[in-house]
Amino acid sequence: MTIRKLIFTNLKKSAKNYYLYLFALTFCVALYFSFVTLQYDPAMNEVEGSIKGAAAIRAASVMLIIIVGVFLIYANNLFIKRRSREIGLLQLVGFTKGKIFQVISIENIIMYTIALITGIFIGFISSRLMMMILIRLMDLNEVAELNYSNQAVIQTLLVFMVIYIVIMVVSALFIHRQRLINLFQLQSSTELKSKKISKWQLLIGIVGIVAILFGYYMSSKLFDGDFVTINSLFAVMLLILASVIIGTYLFYKGSVSFIFYLIRKKNNGYLTINKVLSLSSIMFRMRSNSLLLTVITTISALAIGFLSLAYISYYSIEKQAENTNPNHFSIPSFEEAEDFYIALEDNDINYKTIEMELYEVGADLSNVINGPTDDNFFKPDDTTMIVISDEYITDVDLNREESIFMNVQGVLDEFMQMDAEEEFTLFTETENITLDYIEGKEESIVPFSYSNGGFPLAVVDSSVYKQLTTGLESYEEYAGIDIENERELEEANDLYNSIYGESGLGYGSYLQSIQSQKYTMGMIMFIVGFLGLTFLITSGCILYIKQMDESEDEKRNYTILRKIGFTQFDLQRGIRIKQLFNFGIPLILGISHSYFAVRSGWFFFGTELWTPMIVVILIYTLLYSLFGILSISYYKKVIKASL
């Protein structure tokens, strides 16, 4: 048999094993080429957002290379170990290690060539679709065009050529280091065959569960006021990360076996065919695959977590814009606001306005604030606050001894935890007034830029306001304008831009704030979404490939079970339960990890938790389940061929 015939025979025989790997490789090439095409698209840098489009795409491309490279190297290792017996047989019939490496290299060249040609073509076609998605997310008035870039083609070829060379170096080292006898033993030695559960194994299982629960508990206490400095917060975050990851590893190493051991013991060792095919296999397979499953679970948790946070930010854009700009337009000067009033009246646009003089006074909030602080950045007993009269606030009428805080956003409420019914002090050089803090309200009165980036404002009785501000010469003017008919808001926004243009601090437009955030968060959502999809496909493919290996290893068992009378349906029912555990446990654990991670700090990113996170989890679960369905389909073929 010639080498050429051997290569094509191997490819034909291995098609059932390689098709998903080839699909994943083609997908990665297409996605990378699409990203690089967008990177070289001149339209990307014309976006006037807070970040450069091409720079963001370039950074995402680097991350994509890392993800794809690790996946391809790991998948290649799985396949070459799977072929260890074949490599040993080739050596027995006279093939040198160099010839065997040549065969494997040519096989990979053929697969990579097919994947590169197909992937670049699909990437070129889909680059316009990706641009349309990006334009939609960023809410741009642009038309997506189909652009071809020679630079993108060359960069894609170079990147995957480097990955191919690395894979071939790894394969060459594997072939060179393995002795002939080891090649026939390697496949069976990769799986743990011990069927005994030791006391040490039980201890590991219990420690794993405790470590995960400890990490969850600490994450729920992260901003409860128990950790009062920035350094302690970072230390606890590292502790949570280490506890959850180590706990996950120990969970797969011992907890799964421990739980299934208890189930088996409850049945006095007697198991149905379904439990034999599912529980018994998983008890020992997961232990040997604990590191791989830990990595997949962590990757799933990261993907779901980042996708959830990105979508929380995107979902909360309008609410965040309301907090940043409580009025449709803001102007930091009563005199300059007159120009806008005249322009609105000349165009018959009805509006309402509020004008306030904002005074900043000293404040001692040490009795009110009960949360993590750092004296290097913020001193509760010696800070400043904007003070305003209750006359400016509708439905608020305070006594002389009372005060409420406005602009208490979710992040501040979670982070600083202000205690109601406590006293605090407002002071100037001549006055010192102690007030009762009644409550904090989320409603914004002035833009964040007027309130030290979103710090609460103190609302006091008008007489207290006069007493504090009498004699103060330094203050800021704030004019807030609301358009009565929102259909005229865009016209008013055009007038505002024509008058003030790119004005500085204190000027603000509600519509511009929404657009600016959509520029930034739309780009982030786009990048995180496709990177998350890459995480999903690569981890799903790795699990699928492992299941292919296991099905071939267990084919002999299926033959025995078929001979003693069990039907294909009996075996397939047990396999469905097994795959539910194999794919379900990493998914459920990844969702659980991501939930507690997001739950501990979601308020930094937006105003809504549940809707964005549920949407992300449902979509991720649906796509992830496809790999479980494919593995069940493959098992059916193996079971059918077992007799």
Describe the protein's topology:
Layout (H helix, E strand, L loop, with lengths): L2 H11 L1 H25 L13 H30 L1 H9 L4 H42 L11 H28 L2 H10 L9 H22 L9 H37 L6 H16 L1 H26 L1 H8 L4 E3 L2 H13 L4 E14 L18 E7 L12 E5 L3 H7 L5 E6 L4 E9 L16 E4 L1 H8 L6 E8 L5 H12 L7 E2 H44 L1 H9 L4 H34 L8 H31 L3
Parallel strand pairs: 3-7, 4-6
Antiparallel strand pairs: 1-8, 1-9, 2-3, 2-5, 2-8, 4-7, 5-6
How would you describe what is shown here?
With 643 residues, the chain is α+β, with helices and mostly antiparallel strands. 66% of the residues lie in helices and 9% in strands. It has 20 helices and nine strands. Strands 2-3-7-4-6-5 form a six-stranded mixed barrel. The longest helix is centred in the C-terminal third of the chain and has 44 residues. The two termini are 30 Å apart. About 1% of the residues have low confidence.
Kindly report the spatial arrangement of strands forming the biggest sheet.
2-3-7-4-6-5
Average of the residue pLDDT scores: 85
Termini gap: 30 Å
Tell me the overall shape. Answer: elongated
Computed CA radius of gyration, to the nearest angstrom: 32 Å
Q: Which percent bin holds the helix content? A: 55-70%
- What proportion strand? 5-15%
Task: Give the helix/strand class.
Answer: alpha+beta
Q: What is the number of helical segments per DSSP (H or I, 4+ residues)?
A: 20
Give helix and strand order, one letter per element, not per position. HHHHHHHHHHHHEHEEEHEEEHEHEHHHH
What low-confidence regions span 5 or more consecutive residues with pLDDT below 50?
189-194
Largest sheet: 6 strands, mixed, barrel
What is the strand tally? 9
